[in-house]
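Researcher: Please predict.
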Amino acid sequence: MAVLNIVEYPNSILEQQCEKVTSFDRSLIKLLNNMYDTMISADGVGLAAPQIGISKQIAIVDIGDQSGTIELINPVIIEKRGEQVGPEGCLSFPGLFGEVSRADYIKVRAQNRNGKTYIIEADDFLSRAIQHEIDHLHGTLFTSKVTRYYEEGEIEG
């Protein structure tokens, strides 16, 4: 597949509401595969389509555990509870890290690459990563939720 260029802030596509995906075809599968290669190449745990210049509700998450790669198309958070506070970074903000509060548990309805609707439940770090990527699809950047920024060397990178 291909490693794509990652869009960095202040590119305006990062702050736009993305369009729903209506066509589940070969081009979508190719895009998802390229997004995965791009995320891995950039040493990320998630990537949203606007981060590669595409204003569509598509995101992938892979935190390197048993949950594997999660493809989120047209995702909607249908339940959330609890709170966790922790560090976040973003491939569109290289070298920037901040403390962000997120729901500890979420339930999400999304579609897979074939258009089939599914429900996923997540907690802890997986919940954080999914919420971060879903925010991208609505033009919300993690910097709008940071309560404090970390100094260089303050967290392990």
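Model: The mean pLDDT is 96.
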